[in-house]
């Protein structure tokens, strides 16, 4: 069985109880779309978007994408806060766990579902639990663009991963590591949780700020003890890659795209026994978006087989649209199949929703970790 089938089966299982989605309508984009432009703010480090994906969208719709790259979600949120006053951004691409923070900051407009093609999405990505997380006050404020994982990128010759590979490898002095502070702190928390070393479940911290402080204090203290093996911090794709190729990291907790980019340079990608982190990325529209119709055309196109395949290929990730997997490069499928079987897919740890207060406090812990 290919990884494409495995991922699709997993998504169907994760949406248990959801009714079958309606078959996607065949929409002649060139005939329906108006010409114009839209202002899109998204992730830096993925050149295929500008090289291939945006030109394909323009060819299909006549709409030009003005693309502003940002290194991480914190930078996106900061830019959006400026834009809500000054204008200039129509669509942004955060992850679903941050939608609550964007909403509480008064940044989000609502998508008009009649102008989208919600039946295009694979089960479990825009409906079920994900669908509930995508709505605020009854309005649809988020639609998916791609999804993927964050796990162990490692040097095949020198890394010490454990048997089976574990998040503990990130804190092993035998390794030189590249880490994103907030992910490393969460990895430590999850590791301590499965080891029975926390006073309460790690997940409690996402809904109770008192529990968050209690648990993250513990995780921070343990991370600081192991900090000597950190050779680089990362917040975006370019920094993560540099941690390995420029600074000699042997292990990192990084996105699947980092592992994919380094796959021909002696590096592998492995899911830890505690479960790989999983992220769900998508589009939000600014409340003061100037190009609303064009924004809907953009999101709708990314849900088609061609658009979803192009978007996921640009990120070396997983597509959200029906029929997209068959259009993606075979080496992407092979890469994922080598890292994730059905059991590892079932063990994925999806980033929980994080409030604006939580994100701010998480940033404080990240700063303390880096400064320690």
Strand and helix layout:
Elements (H helix, E strand, L loop, with lengths): L2 H12 L14 H4 L3 E8 L4 H14 L1 E8 L2 H14 L4 E2 L6 H6 L23 H6 L1 E2 L2 E2 L2 E13 L21 E3 L1 H14 L14 H17 L4 E4 L3 H9 L5 E5 H6 L5 E4 L6 E9 L6 H11 L2 H11 L14 H10 L2 H5 L2 E2 L5 H16 L1
Parallel strand pairs: 1-2, 1-3, 7-8, 7-9, 11-12
Antiparallel strand pairs: 3-11, 4-5, 6-9, 6-10, 6-11
Helix pairs in contact: 3-12, 7-8, 8-15
Write up what this structure looks like.
A hairpin with a 2-residue loop joins strand 4 (135-136) and strand 5 (139-140). It is globular and about 55 Å long. The chain contains 15 helices and 12 strands. It has helices at 3-14, 29-32, 48-61, 73-86, 99-104, 128-133, 181-194, 209-225, 237-245, 256-261, 292-302, 305-315, 330-339, 342-346, 356-371, and strands at 36-43, 63-70, 91-92, 135-136, 139-140, 143-155, 177-179, 230-233, 251-255, 267-270, 277-285, 349-350. Strands 1, 2, 3, 6, 7, 8, 9, 10, 11 and 12 form a 10-stranded mixed beta sheet that branches. Mean pLDDT is 90; it is low at 1-34. The protein folds into 2 domains: 3-147 and 278-343, Periplasmic binding protein-like II (D-Maltodextrin-Binding Protein, domain 2), CATH 3.40.190; 149-277 and 352-371, Periplasmic binding protein-like II (D-Maltodextrin-Binding Protein, domain 2, 3-Layer(aba) Sandwich). With 372 residues, it is an alpha/beta fold. The N and C termini lie far apart (47 Å).
